[in-house]
């Protein structure tokens, strides 16, 4: 029987712990950690994710600020807003929800966020620290995946990990985190030849493809651990992952569901890093 890697359950547990930490923190007379989430435009998926972040932040007891901006906003105006939060000593974490409108340069925006407030781990300084094996802030989705695997005592040392997807927010940072855990890592992507030959070698298969139920049992080695990063709406409007869950289930030793797997863990790691930065910014 496959182990279901229940991200929702671990997220709830970790967020309860964080809520207790915030209470203690307040009782010691410190100001509560503050997270600013900047959301530009009306993308419906982004709105759902930001809403979930706001709900979690409020439940934990953080000071949660969601700054909603029109998608006509000029790049320089956005950069000034970010700078004002950089300068504001009461702000511990700043996240700019991606993707950005086309006329705004993502690289410039991520570079503008104070690395000490970059709870998303996307600033080039934090990316570089992860690259050299001395991470400070981690991108939340890969960090959530590692945390969930560790919670279930899934050993990564020497294991063959195959990640499908080479994005800056999932595939590439996860590669570094897996290397830091002493795994052997392969990244496959849309141009990979004979994808199945790669995936069938995986002890741990991570799907971050962006295609509904792409991974069927013929892509999966018997007894593999499967991590599904996908968030797709199928033809019936139902949220499904990149993995055909029912099809691969009999074959795997462990699997993350969608919803309730990687998504809630992503949000929890954001909260965790906000708490950590809040502590640091208060000198603890
Ligand atoms: N600067 C930035 N940081 C991010 O961390 C970031 C981002 N931009 N852009 C988009 C991706 C995606 N992401 C998710 C967060 C929560 C869920 C989540 O809560 N998922 C729920 C279901 C959500 C639903 O019902 O649609 C679940 O899997 O159970 C999913 C995806 C954060 N991202
Ligand atoms: Mg993230």
Automatic annotation (TrEMBL):
Keywords: Amino-acid biosynthesis, Histidine biosynthesis, Hydrolase, Methionine biosynthesis, Multifunctional enzyme, NADP, One-carbon metabolism, Oxidoreductase, Purine biosynthesis
GO molecular function: methenyltetrahydrofolate cyclohydrolase activity; methylenetetrahydrofolate dehydrogenase (NADP+) activity
PROSITE patterns: THF_DHG_CYH_1 (PS00766), THF_DHG_CYH_2 (PS00767)
Lineage: superkingdom: Bacteria
Amino acids binding NADP(+): 165-167
Cellular component, GO annotation: cytosol
Record-linked CDD domains: NAD_bind_m-THF_DH_Cyclohyd
Catalyses which reaction(s): (6R)-5,10-methylene-5,6,7,8-tetrahydrofolate + NADP(+) = (6R)-5,10-methenyltetrahydrofolate + NADPH; (6R)-5,10-methenyltetrahydrofolate + H2O = (6R)-10-formyltetrahydrofolate + H(+)
Pathway this chain belongs to: One-carbon metabolism; tetrahydrofolate interconversion
Domain Tetrahydrofolate dehydrogenase/cyclohydrolase NAD(P)-binding: 139-280
EC number assigned by the record: 1.5.1.5, 3.5.4.9
Biological-process GO terms, alphabetical: L-histidine biosynthetic process; methionine biosynthetic process; purine nucleotide biosynthetic process; tetrahydrofolate interconversion
Pfam families per UniProt: THF_DHG_CYH, THF_DHG_CYH_C
Tetrahydrofolate dehydrogenase/cyclohydrolase catalytic domain ranges (all copies): 5-120
Family: Belongs to the tetrahydrofolate dehydrogenase/cyclohydrolase family.
Subunit architecture: Homodimer.
Function, in words: Catalyzes the oxidation of 5,10-methylenetetrahydrofolate to 5,10-methenyltetrahydrofolate and then the hydrolysis of 5,10-methenyltetrahydrofolate to 10-formyltetrahydrofolate.
NCBIfam families (alphabetical): PRK10792.1, PRK14186.1
Protein name: Bifunctional protein FolD
Species name: Vagococcus bubulae
């Amino acid at each position: 029987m496959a182990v279901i890697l229940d991200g929702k359950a671990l997220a709830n547990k970790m967020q309860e712990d964080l809520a207790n930490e915030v209470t203690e923190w307040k009782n010691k007379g410190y100001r509560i950690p503050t997270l600013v989430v900047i959301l530009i435009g009306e993308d419906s998926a982004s709105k759902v994710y930001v809403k979930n972040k706001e709900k979690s932040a409020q439940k934990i007891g953080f000071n949660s600020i969601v700054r909603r901006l029109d998608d006509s906003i000029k790049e320089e105006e956005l950069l000034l807003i970010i700078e004002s939060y950089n300068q504001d000593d009461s702000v511990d974490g700043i996240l700019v929800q991606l993707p950005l409108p086309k006329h705004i340069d993502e690289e410039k925006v991520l570079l503008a966020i104070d690395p000490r407030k970059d709870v998303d781990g996307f600033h080039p300084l934090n990316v570089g620290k992860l690259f050299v094996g001395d991470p400070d802030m981690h991108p939340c989705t890969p960090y959530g995946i590692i945390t969930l695997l560790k919670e279930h005592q899934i050993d990564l040392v020497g294991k063959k990990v195959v990640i499908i997807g080479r994005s800056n927010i999932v595939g590439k940072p996860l590669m570094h985190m897996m290397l830091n855990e002493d795994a052997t890592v392969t990244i496959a992507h849309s141009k990979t030849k004979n994808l199945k030959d790669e995936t069938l070698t995986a002890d741990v298969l991570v799907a971050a493809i962006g295609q509904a139920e792409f991974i069927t049992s013929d892509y999966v080695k018997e007894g593999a651990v499967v991590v599904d990063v996908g968030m797709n709406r199928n033809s019936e409007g139902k949220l499904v992952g990149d993995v055909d869950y029912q099809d691969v289930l009999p074959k795997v030793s462990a699997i993350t569901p969608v919803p309730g797997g990687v998504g809630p863990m992503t949000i929890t790691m954001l909260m965790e890093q906000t708490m950590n930065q809040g502590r640091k910014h208060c000198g603890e």
